[in-house]
Amino acid sequence: MRPAASSPRDVDALARAVVAAALLALCSLVAAGFGSMSAGASPSLAPVGSSAHVLYGFAGPPPRLYAVDPGTLRPERGRSAATGGHVFGWSFAPARERLAAGSDVTAELRLYDLRRLRVLGDVELVRPSARGLVFASTWASRSRVLAVVVSPGCCGLGDTIVSGVDADTRRVLWRRDLQSSLQAGAAYRGGFVLVVGPKFAIGTSRLLVVAPDGRVRTVRLDQIRSGWQRSGSGARFVAHQWNPGLAVDPASARAFVVQAGAPVAEIDLRRLSVRYHELLEPISLLGRLHDWLEPKAEAKAMQGPQRQAVWLGDGHVAVTGVDYEASVDSRGQDQETDTPAGLKLIDTRNWSVRTLDHTTTSIVSSSGVLFAFGSSWDSRTSTMKGSGLTAYDAGGHELYHRYDDQPISAVDQVPRGVLVGGNQGSSVFRRQDLLQPRTGRIIGRARLDIELISSDQPFWF
Length: 461
Known about the structure:
2 helices, mainly beta, 461 residues, four-stranded antiparallel β-sheet, ten-stranded mixed β-sheet
């Protein structure tokens, strides 16, 4: 959810606070049990197999980058490097000999030597003293890394800058100020595909293809609205956010942008041509468009749709998300209700759509399996609801369901399977189950106090 603010200056302060809180939460999580390891204790951890593929993770206190044993998922205490807060938007070099990770406020990119587990140096991605969050990065070659910076620092409020860095000399080769707010993105052929909207407003979206050499190609998405905008005045106002989902098929060089209440935009990434497709079953609209056009100005919580899209292959795109609805109770307190968008499977060969589930809010594709899960918050009752974990094949056929209706929050791939974690109220809160992806069989359990980084961090909105 994005913070509401009364001015760009307030947004800057709140954005920094949100990112700081996220980092603090990460540090607190990893400190909870890993700190005791340094005193000689061992985590409650069952062996989960072996692999030659080295894992890494952030743990503390203070936060450090550790090599992680792939068999036990235990940090190797003798192999670590200082992070200095550079734990955002990480990505691996092609041969996995180096790692890039960014800061949350100073817009720096730190480069790590993974073979020796040491810091190579930091790079200022934007002008000196400028603030911003390094939201994502990707490697175009062993010596070229690209990074996306959002400023003032969180959640697409404000500007987006992409920088190209020479990893050998740690020098910025080029910068591109996109003059837009980041709404969705994905790595693509050594660069990025980005969906951007206007700054501090809701309006027409654009799709940008950023190449490794800094070339930027752009196309308007006239039927896809996105952005952030405040309506109303004084103490009571509504902060509207409209976030589309983006899925990319590298094989056919196509991108798909999905927004609530709009046709699917299909973009040919070679020609940058756009076609819109009405689905045979409409994707849920929040039902608040009239209130956005004529705001009631009675709240200061978030309101609007957020979508996530994942390319599954064989012509299929999976879509889910959350519809946020704001209100003010009889005591004048801001309230927010999160309504799951459910899980829909779009067949891009005939533009039909199937509803697989009505309670999903998040999806992850791993090992040829689509994992659907999620949680939603109702501030009126202070309750967190969930939908458990359901696994599907690429064609949308259910493989299994686990965890009943518990609030599941994360599915992460590791060498032998996927680790499943949950929010408070779930059986995998503050510990994780290792599942065999195709069958859902539990093959290991771990109490982990480390943020594993086995692959590049995806865009998270």
